[in-house]
Protein 1
Amino acid sequence: MTTNFHSRKNPSSRTTNMKILSIETSCDETAVSIVEASGGLEKPVFTILGSSLFSQIELHKEYGGVFPTLAKREHAKNLTPLLVKTLQEAKLLEYNTESKLPSDIATDTWTEIENILEKEHGLFEIFKTTLENISRPQVDVIAVTSGPGLEPALWVGISFARALLKLWDIPVIGVNHMEGHITSVLLKTEELKISIPPLLTSHVLPLASTSIQFPALALLISGGHTELVEIKTWGQYSIIGQTRDDAVGEAFDKVARLLGLPYPGGPEISRLAQTARQNQIPHTVTLPRPMIHSGDLDFSFSGLKTAVLYYIRDHGELSENDKLNIAREFEDAVVDVLLTKTKEALEQTGAQTLIIAGGVIANKKIKHEFGLLTHTYTDLTVLVPETTFSTDNSTMIASAGYIQVLLYPDLLTSQRQIIAEGNLAFPKSS
Ligand code: KG4
Ligand code: ZN
């Protein structure tokens, strides 16, 4: 690691170069990355040295959503093998030589690690048998998601990171998952530029060719969140609008379930909606645009789901065309509400950079419509993460961890206690 943290007062002039091991277990993805980060806050540069992810989606399908106990058990089972795979990919995996056998690790250390991992069923056994033969890798910091998310799931990642700190003496920092979604655009960015009509041309750009101007605005849309976040500068986030009930991804999932489609519902609804548009099926369904004229920046999606429920109840058995129609109208309603509120937020904040992140931005219709915004707002840059980094992943946790280290270098030297905070949230703007 080479650092230049001399300018303690001016974070933007700090630079460093470090290897970050990052861990994500907030929901149903278990992920580990090793990322080399360099540069300062104005142009951070990230190189992914290794990255492994196990998605539990197939396992949760039969429950129609994420089942926390199962998520916790799967994280505990998969973290250690994913770490080894990632170390190997990053060329940082070295086995202890005969002369440096596990006996070098004091029994006390193992007892402490056993205590740390006490609540994570089966994790200690696999951790010890695997890692006692592996040398400490050349990694400078461990970044682990500490919230928001499912607390039992978050704890597995945090305990695992604390066990690694004990074993390898590498500092650990806790990262806000939502900051991870925001900084995911620093990894590899797609700048949305749409040429009308209706061909979508989007360019994948490294951040070097674009730039984030502050204040920036982030629209975070995932299975658990729908938030408009004003970013004054790195590290200064405030919520200026959010959902009062269901998150937008949750609404996609629930409507999909009403239509008899599997979890996760977003891609399924999107597929039906696209078919409806392509085949120009006549419009037969009208759904509300909840809170579109509320005069604030908040959202509500549960009413939209209920409107679908009532439609189905009153309509009786649905034909294939009915399903296509519902999916298209639902997607259109979501787009209308998201666009209206985002435009209001752009006007309120004067932001010229809009970051859209979270799993729902995989939706082609939403991407397309937001790309068109650049025609109305000609100074606006719309950035979305590359698809791999839009759903939950650990590489985005490394990028947020790096921003934190640049802002607060002391994190590397004074170890703070990290706890799982299921409801961790940015402050609300006053
Ligand atoms: O960010 P994410 O991977 O996990 C959370 O932190 O929640 O987002 C998952 C959500 C799910 O609700 C899923 O249905 C939704 O993203 N999603 C989509 C699409 N792909 C995933 N929603 C709409 N259209 C899509 N193409
Ligand atoms: Zn997420």
Note: The longest helix spans residues 320-349.
Protein 2
Amino acid sequence: MKIVFLGPPGAGKGTQAQILVNKYRIAQISTGDMLRAEVKNQTDIGKLAKSIMDAGQLLPDDLMIKMIETRIHKNDCHNGFILDGFPRSLGQAQALDKMFALQHTKIDLVLLLEVDEQVLADRISGRFSCANCGASYHKTMKQPKVKGVCDVCGATEFVYRADDNKETVLARLETYKKQTAPLLPYYEQKKCLYRIDGMKNVNEVAKEIDQIIKNIV
Ligand code: ADP
Ligand code: AMP
């Protein structure tokens, strides 16, 4: 099963991807998480990525395409995977199609999470995650069950994303509209795009996604 998540920053892609990973035992490939790891480890890619991510812009297509090409050939992807944050431009989408065509395979479905802009701002401003395992939380909508303790791994340290500030969020939204939104007609034409009401609560959105997967795959 190969799934692509699309949607503006804060729409709930990572949250829903985590649910699917646990349910279907497939890999979650978050290019944002991969880049944050590069930044943390101060690699050459990380050094380049830092200022681009802080500005809310996209890294060059060729770099991201290479990164994904390497990642999808790893063992944990045999069962399938969820792309969360890739493709983000027409160039990336076309490159992904070419990669899959060479393997005689294709994307099973593209799930678009639709959320109003005002709600996106609330979601992003309250987002935090476990410093150890990356599990994602929200200060009002999804607190850990025991305050200050990660539900998944029991760690007690949490982090906020450097690019979740007001100014960068506005830039990320603009980047989404200009460079990623053109992927909607692209996938609509290929008849694999499914629109999901991302305004509902986490469980309701997960149910809607589950129904779509059951009907398609
Ligand atoms: P994305 O990966 O699309 O940027 P996330 O999955 O990180 O978005 O979600 C952004 C924030 O909103 C997180 O703090 C998450 O806990 C919260 N969230 C995700 N989905 C919902 C939802 N359906 N309702 C309310 N809050 C949500
Ligand atoms: P995300 O965690 O998906 O919100 O991504 C965080 C940031 O990483 C984005 O604002 C971009 O700067 C960068 N990024 C993530 N994925 C991509 C991609 N596919 N192409 C280019 N830049 C990306």
Note: The mean pLDDT is 96.
Protein 3
Amino acid sequence: MSAKTVAIIGSGPAGFTAAIYAARAMLRTIIFEGNQPGGQLMITTEVENYPGFEDGILGPELMEKFRKQAHRFGAESIYEYITEVDFSRRPFILRAGNKEYTADAVIIATGASAKLLGVPGEQEYMGYGVSTCATCDGFFFRDQDVIVVGGGDSAMEEALYLTHHARSVTIVHRRDQFRASKIMLKRAQENPKIQFILNTIVTEFLGESSDGVKKLKAVRLRNVQTGEEWIKEIDGVFIAIGHKPNTEIFRPWLEMDDQGYILTRGKTTYTNIPGVFAAGDVQDPRYRQAVTAAGSGCMAAIDASRWLEEADFEASSETAADQQTQSVSS
Ligand code: NAP
């Protein structure tokens, strides 16, 4: 019997870990790397909390190691962005523009994207003072002054986390009402290191570049009620205005929560469609760490591999039953 094909959509830690495990389980393993091969870590600088790298490692370098490890066991990368799927029949169909691929099982590891403000300088200083992850980058702002943008639980959580490193944390929020839960807001309000600037938005990130090294220096703020504008010097800005899971193309097929995260069954990576699994940030609004994504990628490959074995077993039992029926009826 020819090897079954597992298609993995997405090439972050979840996708590549799934690929390592699937390829080692002797499944034909295809990774669709998408528009940002390597995922979110490609826009991170130093990663210090991924176990096994005692001196830290650059995000892009870490992802290259993941890729090489997956390829070593025969997984194959296809540098295409999947634009449409058809999960109504097996093998499943995946389309990238006008190209069509089939797979016996699919692992979705398309991740989530941090929402950004979309103002001048934001992209330019991303990784050079601007961050979307306090757990990843907070450590680099030891005894410095930072801003957290947002008024939800993420903003409160990021701000509280940052107080362990930074000298001061200022939450800049566009309203004077908060989406954050009362308890998280209270914790932030009671923390002496945290201040609030309300009814205010960041309109520009300002910095400088010396010897080719960029560094954020300040932000331009605007009070949305008075229109007053001013520049605030700052060492770091953490944008915590929510994440958006990359699940648009799966909407017609898969059960999701109200934010669009794919729902998985119990402690598994099973979705509502047998043979389709979800791993990493695409199904995890809570932890969102490279190491937790990698862990769930491993789970998805094990789930897919076992599901394929069971599907094979059922197919061969059906064939045996058919043969018996035929021999009875002939
Ligand atoms: P969220 O609840 O949607 O809050 C996003 C915040 O960002 C809001 O205050 C929003 O302002 C602000 N915002 C959105 N777009 C903005 C923009 N363009 N410019 C400036 N501000 C903007 O998102 P979240 O905080 O990431 O939380 C998502 C979910 O995860 C929630 O259900 C939350 O409870 C949960 N969560 C829970 C925990 C926890 O319990 N420990 C931790 C993190 C997240 P407005 O209020 O004006 O819209």
Note: Residues 220 and 255 are 41 Å apart (CA to CA).
Protein 4
Amino acid sequence: MKATITVLPGDGIGPEVTAQAVRVLEKVAAKYGHDFTFHEALMGGIAIDKTGQPLPDETLRSAEQSDAILLGAVGGPQWSDPTAKVRPEQGLLGIRKHFELFANLRPVKAYPALAQHTPLRAELLDGVDMLFVRELTGGLYFGPRQEQGDGDSAYDTEIYSVPEVERVAHVAFRAAQGRRKQVTSVDKANVLAAMRLWRRTVVKVHEDYSDVALDHVLVDACTMYLVTRPASFDVILASNMFGDILSDEASVLAGSLGMLPSASLGSSTFGLYEPIHGSAPDIAGQGKANPTGTILSAAMLLRYSLGLDAEAKAVENAVEQTLAAGARTADIAPKGGAWISTNEFAETVLGCL
Ligand code: IPM
Ligand code: MG
């Protein structure tokens, strides 16, 4: 098949990890007879430096003409002045909003090969395989706000409407139907009005899915359960803010933040694919970045935007084989143990493919 992919390398380790994921996609194209065209564009801090805008119009136009976006990471200390008018993160939030990518899928799996590398006891990790469905275009991230300016107060507002919760809840229940048929909805309904609406709406949507079990967990308790009984979760449905926090916590289960991919989807097959990690400016340019999260994001792109499930599985299997063979980037190497570069790790994945 023919597909056009907009690549947004972004900042820090972003360019290093996206370059490797593009190589993997090129290999998939060659092996399975597809024709992928890649368009690189500016977004984030690098876009601010070159154009003054975190999300230039040209980038949006390129993305609009694509089947999917592959993104590295955005942000860095040089753009973190709290009084700055433009911030790299606005580029990312702007894309999510522009394309109304309201459902963010973040699968978290514990890799047996990395069990020793997590701070949790190995027996707790046995069977960990969960999928976060994070609401991505509403809530605290997009509510009315007042910046601090020179004043002595500032605020952000959490607003959720019934349709906003409904559409993401449907994504979670449908995903659960293809998995272990269990949705855990996270909220703070004991305190927050928007979260009471969230719970009421999820309960209502659940009426359409009698084959899926639903339970509700308060977010504070959820942080605890994620480390005390992580294998008990199947699909975790959460608001924008809570999903952000909980998915970073859950990444520990996978051995490293560098392992985790994500897909951000709306109501069509168009999607944005990015690792959940940030730009890691402290290790940028040293070959220390773990490209796994981005390579697995490319696999999700194949699956969700291009409908190429066998190709996606092949990439996922290649990553698993690479880890099983003992290949380790710096973040997942044993203390004082040997590690290979971003590039060498990707070479191994390509070899397995
Ligand atoms: C994420 C990131 C972003 C978010 C930042 C970079 C704006 O943390 O994708 O989880 O908070 O959504
Ligand atoms: Mg985050």
Note: The domain at 1-111+257-353 is CATH 3.40.718.10 (Isopropylmalate Dehydrogenase).
